[in-house]
Input
Amino acid sequence: MATNNLTSIFPKGISLTGGIPIKSQDFAASIVLVVVYAIIFPLALWRLVSSSSRCMALVRPTVFALARIITFVFRALQANGNYSKGLFIGEQILLLCGFILLCEPLLTLIGYHLMRNTVPHPGQGTILNRVHRLLQIALVVALALGIYAGSQMASISSTSSSSTINTIKDCRDANAIICLVVTVLSGLVTLAAQAKERPALPIRSTILLVAISALLTVSSAYRIVLYERSTTPNPIGSGTKIAFYLLSSLPEVLVSILYISLNLNDAFDIPEGRRKEKAVKQMKKGTYQGEWNSSNLESQQQSYSGTTYSPSSRYDYAEVRYEYEDIRD
Output
């Protein structure tokens, strides 16, 4: 049986994400997911190229949708009896590395969310800002681990050395654990920002971020349970397939839909956030002259009673809350 040959490709002890595709369990589901992502991809591409909704946060979800079309085409081909080592390894690598493409935009959007109602500054910012930066660094580490594990999986076989097998397992485990930590903390940071000192944050944007965090947490937790099980799941067992489609594939589809459900530029005020990012870079170089320099901030402070801003130097201000939702020139 062809599935036996595929099982022999991976050494014992390495769990297979989604198991081995067979027709009765996987063909119809794979075709449905190909169709779903074939609908999501052009919609994401339209959001990406449209001038009103274009933003870098949409690049990775768009690439992810294309990657999942390829993933489930591979899976459908195998389920239909076209088994090959190339398709099988390719599917496993895409399932391993593609997930981070959905995590990175979440952190990007949280960053813009945290910028609302604040004045740009070249300092370290609040605790939430520092946690957000640490999560971004952690996600880069997870990406590197996933890429390395994927490169090792490309040449794995039943005769691979124990050191190679252990390296792949350790990298996959670390990748999944980091992703879980990032997704959980992303949701907590968003809720903390909403609850503490940021009453003007749009609740719809907060709900969107928390929903994405929760869905990605489910998918991350599934992968950890899969990788850490003491006994390798049956690769053609019905339980293996149900868990894969409900706890991994479904959350990814829902997150992809959420990313394109709103105009992210409007929902997170991304153009204003980019202006603030540019201002911070100029402040660090000492070349910034604009509405957020210290003299303008002092005049704004004097215009609004109840504000307690007393800068001791040009950039000695951590954050200045506006008394109104937005202040322009």
